[in-house]
Design goal:
It contains 27 helices and 32 strands. The protein is of the alpha+beta class. The radius of gyration is 60 Å and the shape is elongated. InterPro entries: GAF, GAF-like_dom_sf, HATPase_C_sf, HATPase_dom, His_kinase_dom, PAS, PAS-like_dom_sf, PAS_4.
């Protein structure tokens, strides 16, 4: 077996840790392992003095201790331990052959380790031991972290004879190095107000390799280390690591500004020993501080939980929550934001330390800002300094303050407050300075928020239970009150109960419709008030106009006078109870305050209104049922049909007067008699069959029976009780309705007789209409003949005569010529009169040019200023229809000239696809139906003639007239 060469730097290592680092690197390469740890007995215990590679997390030192105790190589999984003297080489994933070769160097490694340990002891035993002992005596087992840090800095400065020293513990550790928090100094002119940055290179040398950094100005000038120490400006400086249990704690810094100051290797060992001893003391003090803080936090949380749980009223719970939060975390202000029902807005429900303007103007939105993010994410949101993090504001007001640089707070945290129903809101804490809380404080804040959420949940449940009990009591009281009595006194008491339950100052109950008849309406008929003067009809009508489907808040403009806010809710009947949702009235409540009623108040108002409406509907239904029963009894008493009621055994229990009058003279008293025995023996089987069918079929049974001299048609139906079955065992009674068929037969004969008379009258009327049509046609023919004879014969004779007279007048002179001229003028007037008479009888323009020119001629002939208007596609109608329209318009214009006293008239002709519509309108004095009837009775049959002529043409006449507004006659004719 060939041994690997023994590296000479192992024997020359100045310290055990330098020996361990060199041995780890040599051994890792020799055995081709994933990782190597070098263990050595230091201070009586086995500790890691060097490491190389990966996978070292598999080792916890147990296998190394066992190997050292056994004095031989041990294997466990991927771990292999090789002991040598007071040390152990531990490999992860090593080559077995390499381990075997390296084991041959174990004696040499033992000698080299012993030599390094001896030199280390000889070099620093006296001075280091004395300094460490002094530090231990100085600390005296103190667990006060500030005292430990201060004593360490002072001891290091004095032991080295340097002027200054400080100790800083890390507050931040990352890939870019570390930064200390508060720094404890000795010998400096002023204390450090900020932290000290340690770069990644220095952090690696200090914490990962355990080295002491030595700075000398003459040697290290111009290096990055010199640039980092430029502010301190040391001549010589030593920086030692503070670490415990593998965790970086901070740094120990010692320097001197004296010219010519130097630091040797012994000084380095002294600082390192002080740092190691101080690390143990600092770690113990930190652990003690953490435990003390945990105990204090637990006690504070216990006290806070007890304080929050001591009240079940939400307002008190929120007030105590804010007091505890500000005291526990030292916040300058705090506020509890409540999530509104819209799920998007947060308003401040309770605040401590916030200005009134801030509380009133802030309406946060879910999402932006610290508070909005906490509500949206349902987790704590931290802003250590709003001026640096730029998280924005949750509301427009806070964004304005941030933009103007006037926002009073820098550190802010938002803690969501959750309940089983969801997010209640957010507890937001404010600090005027940057956030002073560390990670432990923030964890404590989350626990406190959980306690607060539980307290809020309990308070909400308690208040919800109280509210339900109050609401149940109010609903029960209102329902019982109105069920027993619906007088004005009862309504006033119900208004009082409802108003107090809604935490309002005034209230009223208004009922619509007729309470006596049980009908709903839209006008207030009764009104009961509490602490309120009864409003007038106009005010009640204004409130009625604000009613909607359910409860709604009212603004001051729509509320009654003096009210700052109000609500109104309609009282509607139950649609399932036969009320069809009819409006029964409304409930109104108001308060001088301007805060609008919340969702809880509106929900309670709905419940109270529903209870009132249910009670009122039930009472109205009972009243309506009693009225219907009385009405049905009245109908039965006055009915001509025979109505009897029998129990399931067949005994008659009721008989109406018609049955009593008809049957009792032949059957004796009906009530108490067997119903089935009333029929004659011959028809009794039919009555029995109808009785059985009444129980077997929903439609009941029918039969024709004889009772004495009467033949009756009877119908039997079973009236079942609630829950009755089809077998009739649960039937309440049997209703029998009978009708005298002999009377019906007489009535049928009378109907037939009257029908025949009606047919005869209808036939006579048809004959008269036919006669009238023929008469009208003959009249028109006669008019046409007379008009033609007047135009062709009489007018021509008169024209010839006038010409002869005109020739005679030209031959005469003197007085004879004047007399002839007079005769000639008279002849001309006679000719014109004959022509006008002929045109009136039958104008030739109607036959030659058609309806519209004829109507234009009529409009020009009328005494009243008349115009013609035409709409629709013009066309020629049948000659008979054109003549009918012409005569109708002619008669209508004649009536206008004679009776209307109009200034103007209009003829409007509208052609349609199925006929024509003609309207004659005037702006005259008009008339009433009574005046038209009086004129007809006085012999003026104009309208009657028009209506008859339109009827003969198969059309319709519509008359619209009103005194002072004129008259319109509309003729609608087919064709």
């Amino acid at each position: 077996m060939t041994l690997p060469p023994f590296p000479p730097e192992l024997s020359a290592a100045p310290t055990v840790r330098a020996f361990g680092a060199a041995l780890a690197s040599f051994a890792c390469q020799s055995v081709r392992a994933h990782g190597v740890q070098v263990w050595a007995v230091v201070g009586g215990s086995l500790a890691v003095v060097g490491e190389e590679g990966r996978g070292l997390g598999l080792s916890d030192g147990t296998l190394a201790a066992r190997s050292l105790a056994a004095g031989g190589v041990l294997e466990e999984g991927m771990l292999v331990c090789l002991p040598f003297g007071a040390g152990v080489l531990e490999f992860v994933g090593a080559d077995p052959e390499g381990v075997e070769r390296l084991s041959g160097l174990a004696p040499l490694l033992t000698l080299a380790l012993e030599g390094v340990q001896a030199r280390e002891v000889r070099r620093g035993r006296g001075r280091v031991a004395e300094t460490v002992e002094q530090l231990v005596r100085r600390l005296g087992g103190s667990l006060d972290l500030a005292e430990v840090l201060t004593a360490t800095a002072e001891s290091a400065a004095l032991a080295l004879g340097f002027g200054r020293a400080f100790v800083g513990l890390f507050s931040e550790v990352g890939a870019q190095g570390a930064r200390t928090g508060e720094v404890f100094t000795h010998g400096f002119d002023s204390a450090f107000t900020g932290g000290i940055d340690v770069g990644p290179v220095s952090f690696g040398r200090l914490m990962e390799r355990g080295e002491v950094i030595l700075y000398e100005r003459g040697r290290d000038a111009g290096t990055p280390l010199a640039q980092g120490l430029a502010e301190l400006d040391p001549e010589v400086a030593l920086i030692a690591p503070l670490s415990a249990r593998g965790r970086p704690l901070g740094v120990l810094y010692v320097d001197s500004r004296s010219p010519g100051a130097r630091a040797g290797e012994d000084d380095t060992w002294l600082v390192l020993a002080l740092a190691e001893q101080a690390s143990l003391a600092i770690d113990n003090a930190r652990l003690y501080g953490i435990e003390t803080r945990k105990r204090e936090a637990a006690e504070a949380l216990r006290e806070a939980g007890a304080a929050l749980a001591s009240s079940l009223h939400l307002r008190d719970t929120l007030s105590r929550l804010l007091e505890r939060a500000t005291a526990l975390f030292g916040a300058d202000a705090a506020g509890v934001y409540e999530l509104q029902p819209d799920g998007r807005t947060l308003t401040i429900r309770s605040a401590l330390g916030l200005s009134s303007e801030y509380v009133l103007r802030v309406r946060a939105k879910v999402g932006p800002g610290v508070t909005g993010r906490a509500a949206q994410r349902r987790e704590m949101v931290v802003a250590r300094d709003l001026t640096d993090q730029h998280l924005g504001g949750s509301s427009r007001y806070t964004r304005q303050l941030l933009a103007q640089g006037q926002y009073p707070y820098r550190g802010v945290i938002g803690l969501p407050l959750g309940t089983r129903a969801g997010v209640f809101g957010v507890l937001t804490l404010y600090w005027q300075a940057p956030l002073p809380l560390d990670a432990d404080d923030l964890a404590l804040a989350e626990v406190f928020a959980a306690q607060a959420s539980l307290a809020i949940e309990n308070a909400r449940l308690y208040e919800e239970e109280l509210r339900r009990e109050r609401e149940a009591a109010v609903l029960l009281g209102v329902g019982r009150l109105l069920a027993e009595d619906q007088s004005d006194r009862a309504l006033s008491e119900a208004a009082r109960l409802a108003t107090l339950a809604l935490n309002a100052g005034r209230g009223l109950i208004a009922l619509t419709g007729d309470a006596a008849s049980g009908e709903a309406g839209r006008e207030v008929t009764r009104c009961a008030t509490f602490n309120l003067h009864p409003p007038g009809p106009a005010e009640l009508a204004s409130l009625m106009a604000q009613l909607g489907r359910g409860p709604r808040p009212l603004t001051r403009r729509h509320a009654l006078p003096v009210a700052g806010s109000a609500l109104i809710v309609p009282l509607r009947g139950d649609p399932g109870a036969g009320g069809a949702g009819d409006l029964l009235g409304f409930l109104y409540a108001d308060d001088p305050g301007t805060e609008a009623p919340g969702d809880r108040a509106l929900q309670l108002a709905r419940s109270v209104a529903d209870q009132m409406a249910l009670t009122l509907t039930r009472e109205r239904l009972l009243s309506a049922l009693a009225r219907e029963e009385a009405r049905y009894r009245q109908l039965a008493e006055g009915a001509h049909d025979l109505i009897l009621s029998a129990d399931p055994g067949g005994t008659v229990t009721y008989a109406n007067p018609a049955a009593t009058r008809l049957l009792e003279p032949h059957s004796g008293p009906l009530v108490g008699a067997p119903l089935l025995d009333l029929a004659t023996p011959a028809t009794r089987p039919a009555l029995h069959a109808a009785w059985d069918a009444a129980f077997a079929h929903p439609a009941g049974g029918r039969a024709e029976i004889e009772v004495g001299p009467y033949r009756l048609e009877v119908r039997l139906s079973a009236v079942r009780a609630s829950g009755g079955g089809p077998d009739g065992t649960a039937a309440h009674s049997v209703l029998t309705v009978a009708r005298d068929l002999s009377e019906l037969q007489t009535l049928a004969a009378e109907i037939q007789r009257r029908g025949r008379a009606l047919e005869a009258a209808t036939s006579r009327q048809s004959e008269l209409r036919s006669y009238l049509a023929l008469f009208t046609q003959a009249q028109e023919e006669e008019r046409r003949r007379i008009s033609r004879e007047l135009h062709d014969d009489t007018a021509q004779v008169l024209i010839a005569t006038s010409r002869r007279v005109a020739r005679l007048a030209r031959e005469l002179d003197g007085d004879h010529k004047g007399r002839v001229d007079d005769i000639l003028a008279d002849l001309q007037q006679a000719i014109e009169s004959v022509r006008r008479f002929a045109r009136n009888l039958r104008p030739s323009v109607l036959d030659d040019l058609g309806l519209l020119p004829a109507l234009e001629w009529l409009a020009g002939q009328a005494h009243t200023d008349t115009r013609l208007e035409v709409s629709g596609p013009e066309r020629r109608l049948t000659p008979a229809l054109e003549l009918t329209v012409f005569r109708l318009v002619q008669e209508a214009l004649t009536n206008v000239d004679k009776h209307a006293g109009a200034h103007s008239a209009a003829i409007r002709v509208a052609y349609g696809p199925g006929g024509v519509r003609v309207a004659v309108t005037d702006d005259g004095q008009g008339f009433t139906p009574g005046q038209a009837l009086a004129r007809a009775q006085g012999g003026h049959l104009g309208l009657i003639g028009l209506r008859e002529r339109v009827a003969l043409a198969g059309g319709l006449l519509d008359v619209e007239s009103e005194p002072g507004r004129g008259t319109t006659l509309t003729f609608t004719l087919p064709g």
